[in-house]
């Protein structure tokens, strides 16, 4: 039998090598070489958001996860919730804004009512949340406990009669001296950021409106009910005087200018104190000894929905649900998760008397929200 020639064997070996290489390449690229998804492109998105999220979005670890895992860089610009959602579609496009990140589901409702159909790829989802609380000091808290306005339950403070606080004490211009608050002076009031500009102040106004306009605080008022309460709402607003324009700046100002000696009662987000305690580290005891967290019973949750104006910004929504980012948001900045059940353990902050479960009420609908916002901006519209 005649053996194959050397040239034939070399050719056969070459064919075999080429075939093996083709099979390996085929297995990597897919049958046609085009089935493998293309690499996710790096992208920079412009997003307007509430100032209380500025430090979260500046966090190096958050930036790393967004960039390395989701190929996103976020150009975050702080702006009041209702200022951002009332920008026109032309303004948003002209400024090349990809997403909004207000601090309220009500702000989202206002945006959707005013921009229906303007953005074809629009998508929104709540990512984080933080309840509205009233910050106080030991003197004011003790006086309100003695009057039955505040109760201490399981080492946590709850405002159980917010209506009496508003109508019997604030509206009637009672003073802290008059209710026996040691060393506190002036009329009783709940200070906040400017509700016409900042969501933490506006959430307080929404809660007050629910209380004053209805017989059941768990029911949001309709427009007719709300209009009857607007003069009282304006009086409460005027009593506060000059107010900070942003949640982040307002709370820092309250802390640095004396806490309860500046404003015995100050409305803000729960996460703001947690963030300060984390940043203070070993020095946090100096902050906490003069602060009490009072939970209105019920309160309103401040939601933080991302409003994606295009499909690219939808990637930001998905990225912010990442477990690592949600953990950072809670453990470093005090934001409760809106997407992961059981993600937040109040034992992580054992030195702060945080409520594990909070009774809440719903904020008013978009038409009532706009009417209230108008009243805060212009007294003539409150009649």
Would you write up a description of this structure?
The protein has 383 residues and is α/β, with parallel strands linked by helices. It has three domains: 1-36; 43-130 and 302-342, Periplasmic binding protein-like II (D-Maltodextrin-Binding Protein, domain 2, 3-Layer(aba) Sandwich); 132-300 and 355-382, 3-Layer(aba) Sandwich (D-Maltodextrin-Binding Protein, domain 2), CATH 3.40.190. 44% of the residues lie in helices and 15% in strands. Helix 3 (60-70) packs across helix 14 (311-320). The termini are far apart. Mean pLDDT is 89; it is low at 17-37.
The CATH architecture designation of the largest domain is: 3-Layer(aba) Sandwich
Q: The biggest beta sheet, please?
A: 10 strands, mixed
Distance between the termini: 112 Å
Shape field: globular
- The CATH topology assignment of the largest domain is D-Maltodextrin-Binding Protein, domain 2
List the helices and strands in order.
HEHHEHHEHEHEEHHHHEHHEEHHEH
Fraction of residues in β-strands: 15-25%
CATH class of the largest domain: Alpha Beta
CATH superfamily of the largest domain: Periplasmic binding protein-like II
This entry's quaternary arrangement is single chain
Q: How big is the Rg? A: 27 Å
Low-confidence stretches: 17-37
For the secondary structure, the number of strands is 10
Alpha plus pi helix count: 16
Helix/strand structural class: alpha/beta
């Amino acid at each position: 039998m005649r053996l194959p020639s050397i040239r034939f064997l070399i050719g056969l070996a070459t064919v075999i090598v080429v075939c093996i290489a083709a099979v390996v390449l085929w297995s990597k690229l897919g049958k046609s070489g085009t089935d493998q998804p293309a690499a996710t492109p790096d992208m920079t998105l412009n997003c307007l958001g509430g100032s209380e999220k500025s430090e979260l979005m500046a966090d190096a670890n958050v930036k790393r996860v967004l960039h390395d895992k989701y190929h996103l860089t976020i150009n975050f610009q702080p702006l009041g919730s209702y200022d951002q959602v009332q920008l026109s579609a032309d303004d948003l496009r002209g400024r090349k804004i990809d997403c909004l990140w207000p601090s309220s589901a009500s702000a989202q409702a206002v945006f959707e009512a005013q921009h229906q159909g303007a953005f074809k790829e629009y998508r929104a989802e709540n990512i984080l949340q933080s309840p509205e609380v009233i910050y106080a000091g030991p003197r004011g808290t003790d006086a309100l406990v003695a009057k039955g306005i505040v109760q201490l339950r399981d080492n946590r403070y709850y405002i159980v009669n917010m209506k009496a606080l508003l109508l019997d004490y604030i509206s009637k211009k009672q003073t802290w001296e008059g209710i026996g608050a040691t060393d506190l002076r002036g009329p009783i009031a709940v200070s906040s950021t400017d509700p016409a500009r900042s969501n933490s102040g506006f959430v307080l106004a929404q809660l007050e409106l629910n209380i004053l306009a209805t017989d059941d605080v768990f029911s949001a008022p309709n427009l007719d009910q709300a209009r009857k309460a607007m003069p009282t709402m304006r009086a409460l607003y005027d009593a506060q005087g000059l107010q900070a324009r942003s949640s982040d700046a307002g709370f820092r100002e309250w802390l640095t200018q004396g806490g309860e000696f500046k404003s015995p009662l100050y409305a803000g987000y729960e996460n703001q104190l947690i963030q300060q305690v984390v940043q203070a580290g070993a020095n946090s005891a100096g902050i906490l000894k003069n602060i009490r967290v009072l939970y209105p019973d019920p309160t309103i949750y401040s939601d933080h929905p991302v409003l994606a104006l295009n499909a690219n910004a939808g990637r930001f929504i998905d990225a912010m649900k990442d477990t690592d980012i949600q953990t950072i948001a809670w453990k470093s900045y005090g934001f409760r998760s809106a997407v992961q059940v059981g993600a937040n353990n109040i034992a992580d902050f054992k030195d702060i008397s945080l409520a594990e479960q909070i009774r809440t009420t719903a904020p008013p609908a978009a038409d009532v929200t706009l009417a209230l916002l108008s009243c805060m901006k212009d007294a003539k519209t409150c009649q």
